[in-house]
Design goal:
By secondary structure, the protein is mostly helical. It contains 18 helices and no strands. It is found in: Membrane.
Length: 527
């Protein structure tokens, strides 16, 4: 039965030995927490991707993706406040919809974390390579800095940063909330400077045609640009330490997402209005004259971009460092280099957080018996789950070496959208099956909010490319085979034993640090 083997919510909460956290966060702190968690990464690495899919219409894509995030986050917040333990969407699904759905959610979260870490590694590589080339007036061969889809052979810098982060995690490097706050400030300052320099020299003619590929292009860009908002669940999980959560959670969630959306739209407007954002087409024939837009991350696009570069007419959609490239094009080369430096400094911490989150999900699944016990093996000296960290690092490095950022971001989004849809369904189901349970935060207008969140996730998932959807189906199929061949027979719940380890167990890796000094992690266990 698909909804069989449900894990008792009471057992989860008892095993977690949840501490009561001090309610200290107000609406302003929550909004700042959200901005810190969300802003930066996606806009740095996916602007060119969105432009190739939607042209100037990518500004609408930011609004669509931000709206879907807002309704999904409101559902996520209710569950996070009720079940403030590790494992996030995986744990929530286990408690409400049973083991099979929970397994599929956990399997999808591997895409969210590991593939996303690969995407950010590729984005980091683009900015750092551009910075080195322009600072030292040298040319690094594309063969060594791009994957085979992108006109190269292997992306060595992306591999190296993934390997470095893996090593840091194995030896026990932890996020520092204070360092994280500084890096957030660096990202925000760099993007603000971009807006200040780009907006005054905008040319409104660059916005025409606004949607060269129609609404389907805007939808496709929204499905990709969703990546720019991942991280908003940091606010959702802070519900239990929020003063008056019923009032402050919606303000913090919607406020931070609204501010990020406006910020993103200003950055997008700065790019579009200065250097244009029309998609690169086959043989350079304008879309209005029957030209065909080339697929982002394709070999054909890479070849056309090389032809444009040879002719001296580069396009922003061809750039691997879109924001820095734009500043150089409008006469601010040194500021462009500084923006590249800001990305180079700030993005590794995002890779570290994503890979950290991946090991956490693996650990909880291993603890439940669904994955081999060796996955939760802890290093005798460093006290870190080194086996799964190294395994994750190898896969992240391989993703980063051979795939372009857009493909990786889309694959990551497919897993994220599936997980958030599952949580929205779980919240709706739990309202019916367990209406009397204490809820520190209740999703407003749940009968409208949850269905809109589910429909929004399905819409963005459907707007992803055919290859991405097929990859997700293939990944899900492998997951089902693993579950029925291995996990189902070894599950602790299936054997009548929840098999949980208390959350304070010394062998459990700490939770990721929230992006704000002084905030706690869910369940009261700080890193």
């Amino acid at each position: 039965m698909i909804f069989g083997r449900v894990k008792s919510l009471d057992a989860i909460l008892a095993t977690a030995e949840k501490k009561s956290l001090h309610r200290s966060l107000g609406a302003f702190q929550l909004t700042m927490l959200g901005i810190g968690a969300v802003i930066g990464t996606g806009i740095f690495v996916l602007t060119a991707e969105a432009a190739q899919k939607a042209g100037p219409g990518m500004m609408i894509s930011f609004i669509i993706a931000g709206f879907v995030c807002a309704v999904a986050a409101l559902c996520y917040a209710e569950m996070a406040a009720m079940v403030p333990v590790s494992g996030s969407a995986y744990t929530y699904s286990y408690a409400v919809m049973g083991e099979l759905i929970a397994w599929m959610v956990g399997w999808a979260l591997i895409l969210e974390y590991a593939v996303a870490a690969g995407a950010v590694s590729v984005g980091w590589s683009g900015y750092v390579v551009g910075l080195i080339e322009h600072t030292f007036s040298m040319d690094i061969p594309d063969l060594l800095t791009r994957g085979p889809f992108d006109g190269g052979m292997v992306n060595l810098p992306a591999m190296l940063i993934a390997g470095l982060v893996t090593w840091l995690l194995v030896i026990g490097t932890k996020e520092s909330a204070s360092v994280n706050a500084v890096l957030v400030l660096i990202k925000v300052a760099a993007l603000t400077l971009f807006i200040v320099l780009a907006l005054p020299v905008m040319n409104m003619e660059k916005f025409t045609p606004f949607a060269p590929l129609g609404f389907s292009g805007i939808s496709a860009a929204a499905a990709s640009i969703f990546f720019a908002y991942v991280g908003f669940d940091a606010v959702s999980t802070a519900a239990e330490e929020t003063k008056n959560p019923q009032r402050n959670m919606p303000i913090g969630l919607i406020g931070s997402l609204a501010i990020c959306t406006i910020f993103y739209m200003l950055v997008a407007a700065g790019v579009i209005g200065t250097v244009g954002a029309q998609p690169v087409t086959e043989a350079g024939i304008p879309i209005a004259q029957g030209g065909i837009a080339l697929a982002p991350g394709s070999t054909a696009l890479s070849q056309q971009c090389a032809a444009l570069a040879a002719a001296g007419t580069e396009a922003v959609t061809c750039s691997k460092e879109a924001l820095a490239w734009t500043l150089r094009e409008i006469g601010w080369p040194q500021i462009g280099n500084l923006l590249g430096l800001a990305a180079g400094l700030a993005l590794p911490s995002v890779i570290l957080m994503m890979m950290f989150g991946q090991t956490r999900i693996f650990f909880v699944m291993s603890r439940d018996g669904l994955l081999p016990a060796m996955f939760s093996k802890v290093h005798p000296t460093y006290k870190t789950p080194y086996v799964i960290t190294i395994l994750t690092g190898i896969f992240v490095a391989l993703f980063a070496a051979f795939f372009p950022v857009g493909i990786l971001a889309d694959i990551s989004n497919s897993g994220t959208l599936f997980a958030f849809a599952a949580v929205s369904i779980a919240v709706l189901m739990l309202r019916r099956t367990d209406p009397s349970r204490k809820r520190p935060f209740r999703t407003p207008a749940i009968m409208f909010t949850a269905p809109i969140a589910i429909a929004g996730c399905m819409y963005l998932f459907w707007s992803l490319g055919v290859e991405t959807k097929l990859m997700f189906v293939g990944w899900a199929t492998v997951g089902l085979i693993v579950y029925f061949a291995y996990s189902r027979s070894r599950s602790h719940v299936g054997r009548g034993n929840d098999g949980d380890v208390p959350e304070h167990d010394a062998g459990i890796p700490p939770q990721p640090v929230p992006p704000m000094p002084g905030a706690h992690t869910p369940g009261g266990k700080d890193a």
